[in-house]
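Researcher: Structure prediction, please.
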Amino acid sequence: MQTAVIGLARVASRYRWTVCALLFFATVINYMDRQILGLLAPLLQHDIGWTQVQYGRIVIAFSAFYAVGLLCFGRIVDWLGTRISYALAMLIWSLAAVLHAAVGSVTGFAMVRALLGIGEGGNFPAAIKATAEWFPRRERALATGIFNSGANVGAVFAPAIIPPLALAFGWRAAFVIIGAVGIVWLAVWFALYRSADPSSVEEAQDEVDALDAANVNARAPGWGVLIRKRQTWAFLIGKFLTDPVWWFYLFWLPKWLNESRGMDMQHIGLPLVCIYAMTTVGSIGGGWLSSALLRAGWSVNAARKTAMLICACCVLPIAFVSQVDNLWGAVAIVGLAAAAHQGWSANLFTTASDLFPKRALGAVVGIGGMAGSIGAVLFSEVIGQVLQRTGHYWVLFAIGALAYLVALAVMQMLTPRMAPAKLDA
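Model: Predicted structure follows.
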């Protein structure tokens, strides 16, 4: 019997990295489907004739419904399980991506972008839950960092793939081709993914695992139960304060390079590729760090928060990037900050599985993700007001530099020992 259990654990050890690969490619597709509109905006503006205000409303439609999708899919993931809910999310956002080819008006694009936002909201709740189900605690941050790096890979690949497709076959065909990639992933997901057997994940039980085992048939807790927990607020505030900084990097860096460094569209690509390449290293490295500390015998509380503190400190130099005259010096500082964000994010996501049982994990990640999206919308307004009134980016970079230390301080106050939330009998 003992030999059979050991053999099962070894098979699961190999298979869980297949799961991680599936999550990675889903996240790559997620970001490519998200970015295609921005990359094809010049072509679409010429063909459809929307104004800047109308384009802004299309972007807001995605952002608002992405927040709704995160919240709703968080509950769906806990109700239906990872296999079905992830497939449902991919199906919705892939069909929405394809449907872009069928619309030709501002209203039509706003509707399909809203549908895309709802579907894409299922990616991270399902991926975090799958990671918690398949990976022991000492490997979860590393696995999260690996699949989360798919966001950076998607950000690099999208500009290289999508514009040539649109120029060769037209923008409608580009939407169809990129959307169809998700359908291919869906077929592979159903062929390869299976639900995790808790006995196959070799790990000594801790308090969260014991609660999971004792309440294996309990229902998923509702939003009302979760929102009353300090642990939920720790994760929520961590996302609310730091997700907007990532969106700032994602959407405003090209504009900053153009305005402050005088870079045109022909030369802006290489600095952005370098920055996103650094974020890939940061995502995996940040996850590896806390996993290595756990393997060295550190507590979960010390390992996660030490890794997050190091990431928060690596962001600080960006407060002074506006005073750096050398282009590649500035790129290195921004790349370090963006990489540190992704390392922070890998550990922040993992704290959800440290603080909550698996049956509540999707809902908690959805709540935190929605808070991060709301924060991004609010910070976008702040960015616009600051740039319109002053024309200077240094204030925004200073806010981004301090956000992580503030978030970590709040999380420390709310969860000083990272004690798991008591949801069960």
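Model: DSSP finds 16 helices and no strands in the chain.
Researcher: Thanks, that helps.
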